[in-house]
């Protein structure tokens, strides 16, 4: 089967980049990305490529080349479902907030709504591909919804469906590279023709040996497992960082030493402020829910520990900042560098910066927050507190603004009268901060808390600033 027209439901961090790469690599396929969020679609169609809804290195170049050619963004969901021979479901699947499984299970209402739309509007034979990360056996739900409609109500034509699972493994910040050179592409399904049709698309740029075929349940579970393993690795190294600080070891040296063992490998061993992002926590909680459902409580407890540890670690960092600043941050100015959950993305979902900043505000600190790609409005939403921009012009008596924050555009401006700087995201621009200059602007005794190991000691020695680095117990 030759796919000529694709529709992707959901124009988010996955739908947008994934479909852009498919459009780029397959100029003969018309790729239509649809979303119910009009504002998001307008941003995808924005003439000014700096205004795309997501920041991802390499993305705007592809959009420039393909948009309007064989890549289209629109809110015309029904029309694009009707004309597609393959439909990707790429909608959000956040953790449920209420009802059965609240706080653990994934909320599948957007997936169900998408499946219902497909059932209602598709004509002829359509391959439906799960791109969203879903609990095991969701394909069954999708199939049931789709099979409830084997006659299109408007056209009265017979319709039929195949459902495939094709989870996405891209990481934000490196999405384009991950899509162009994937470690593997996973396709789970039963019908060989449908599997071949999807494989054929990827074969335009992915070697056959990297396209793995599994049954649909293995594919769904493999996605959750991959994220759980990655997150567990971060919690593991962060636990060792705490031990390094207590014992006089250095976590960077420990990472290097263990990472040179081929069986362990060197990737994902950077200790930091805890893992963030929209998926690690959600996917592990999903695994926990699934395990409890199958009465595997020990399995559930094992994975739940990874999430619990991550939260403990985030609060550990805020507590130690308070401790080092003589036990109180009330009325003190703290300059936060980085709010995104990692570098090279404007995404703040589950960013460790949220918990750490909330803790510090709760303690009465005055936060000046800088991030090269996250805007002030997003930070207000995440902190549940509007910014007070009059703080920026305030020269004296800043201490009366306890528990408030403002956004700083100019990186160098934020150091003025700061008691401490806290690095929470590893943006490259923070590597080249002139610490001698910063120290002169800060209040004495100034502190720098580097949770991302971005500072080279030689660049700060001589500044008289006190430096705390994650997992650095050497001078304790
Ligand atoms: P997102 O929130 O950025 O985007 C989802 C989009 O779907 C939103 O724009 C929303 O408006 C749209 N949507 C919801 N219901 C719709 C409907 N009925 N019709 C049309 N549009 C609808 O989410 P995301 O980060 O792109 O994640 C999507 C899925 O991919 C999730 O399951 C996630 O776990 C998974 N995933 C995400 C990443 C990542 O890096 N963000 C990586 C791999 C997998
Ligand atoms: C992660 C996975 O890496 C992707 O394979 C997966 O597709 C995606 O989740 C998903 O399903 O959403 P992402 O969350 O975008 O990707 O980013 P990662 O690079 O995995 O980083 C996650 C968090 O771990 C970040 O907060 C990052 O700073 C932190 N991290 C990562 C560390 O603290 N140390 C490391 O060594 C690596």
Small molecules bound: nicotinamide-adenine-dinucleotide, uridine-5'-diphosphate-glucuronic acid
Residue stretches low in confidence (pLDDT < 50, at least 5 long) are: none
Helix and strand run? EHEHHEHEHEHEHEHEHHHHEHEHHEEHEE
Strand order of the largest sheet: 3-2-1-4-5-6
Shape: globular
Structural class of the helices, strands and pairings? alpha/beta
Question: How many helices?
Answer: 16
Mean pLDDT: 95
Count every beta strand, where a strand is a DSSP E run of 2 or more residues: 14
β-strand percent reads 5-15%
Distance between the termini: 65 Å
Please bin the fraction of helical residues: 25-40%
| Rg from alpha-carbon coordinates | 24 Å
Major sheet description: 6 strands, parallel
Short characterization:
The chain is built from 16 helices and 14 strands. The protein is α/β, with parallel strands linked by helices and 476 residues long. It starts with a strand and ends in a 7-residue tail after the last strand.
Written account of the structure:
- By secondary structure, the protein is α/β, with parallel strands linked by helices.
- The protein has 16 helices and 14 strands.
- β1 (5-9), α1 and β2 form a beta-alpha-beta unit.
- The radius of gyration is 24 Å and the shape is globular.
- The chain starts with a strand and ends in a 7-residue tail after the last strand.
- The mean pLDDT is 95.
- The structure holds nicotinamide-adenine-dinucleotide and uridine-5'-diphosphate-glucuronic acid.
- Uridine-5'-diphosphate-glucuronic acid (UGA) binds at residues 133, 168-172, 227, 230, 234, 268-270, 272, 275-277, 279-280, 341-342.
């Amino acid at each position: 089967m030759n796919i000529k027209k694709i529709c992707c439901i959901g124009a988010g961090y996955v739908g947008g980049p994934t479909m852009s790469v498919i459009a780029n690599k397959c100029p003969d396929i018309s790729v239509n990305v649809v979303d119910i969020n009009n504002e998001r679609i307008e941003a995808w169609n924005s003439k000014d490529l700096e205004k795309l809804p997501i920041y991802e290195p390499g993305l705007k170049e592809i959009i420039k080349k393909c948009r309007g050619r064989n890549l289209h963004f629109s809110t015309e969901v029904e029309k694009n479902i009707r004309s597609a021979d393959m439909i990707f479901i790429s909608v959000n699947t956040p953790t449920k907030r209420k009802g059965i499984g609240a706080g653990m299970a994934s909320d599948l209402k957007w997936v169900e709504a998408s499946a219902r739309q497909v059932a209602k509007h598709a004509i002829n034979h359509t391959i439906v591909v799960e791109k969203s990360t879903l609990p095991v056996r969701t394909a069954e739900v999708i199939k049931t919804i789709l099979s409830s409609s084997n006659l299109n109500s408007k056209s009265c034509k017979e319709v039929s469906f195949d459902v495939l699972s094709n989870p996405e493994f891209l990481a934000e910040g490196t999405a384009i590279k991950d899509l162009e050179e994937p470690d593997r592409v996973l396709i789970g399904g039963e019908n060989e023709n449908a599997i071949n049709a999807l494989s054929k698309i990827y074969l335009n740029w992915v070697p056959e040996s990297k396209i793995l075929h599994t049954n649909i349940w293995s594919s769904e579970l493999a996605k959750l497992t991959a994220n759980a393993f990655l997150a567990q690795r971060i919690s593991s190294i962060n636990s060792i960082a705490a031990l390094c600080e207590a014992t006089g070891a250095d976590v960077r040296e420990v990472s290097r030493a263990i990472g040179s063992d081929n069986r362990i490998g060197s990737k994902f061993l950077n200790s930091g402020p805890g893992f963030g992002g929209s998926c690690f926590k959600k996917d592990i909680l999903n695994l926990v829910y699934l395990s409890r459902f199958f009465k595997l409580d020990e399995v559930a407890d094992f994975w739940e520990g990874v999430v619990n540890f991550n939260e403990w670690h985030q609060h550990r960092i805020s507590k130690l900042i308070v401790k080092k600043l003589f036990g109180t941050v009330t009325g003190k100015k703290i300059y936060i560098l980085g709010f995104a959950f990692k570098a090279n993305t404007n995404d703040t979902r589950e960013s460790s910066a949220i918990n750490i900043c909330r803790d510090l505000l709760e303690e009465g600190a005055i936060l000046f927050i800088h991030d090269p790609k996250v805007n002030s409005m997003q930070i207000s939403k995440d902190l549940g507190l509007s910014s007070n921009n009059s703080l920026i012009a305030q020269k004296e008596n800043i201490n009366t603004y306890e528990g408030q924050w403002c956004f700083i555009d100019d990186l160098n401006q934020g150091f003025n009268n700061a008691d401490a700087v806290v690095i929470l995201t590893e943006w490259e621009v923070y590597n080249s901060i002139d610490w001698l200059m910063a120290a002169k602007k800060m209040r004495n005794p100034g502190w720098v808390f580097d949770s991302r190991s971005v500072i080279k000691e030689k660049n700060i020695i001589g500044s008289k600033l006190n430096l705390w680095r994650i997992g650095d117990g050497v001078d304790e």
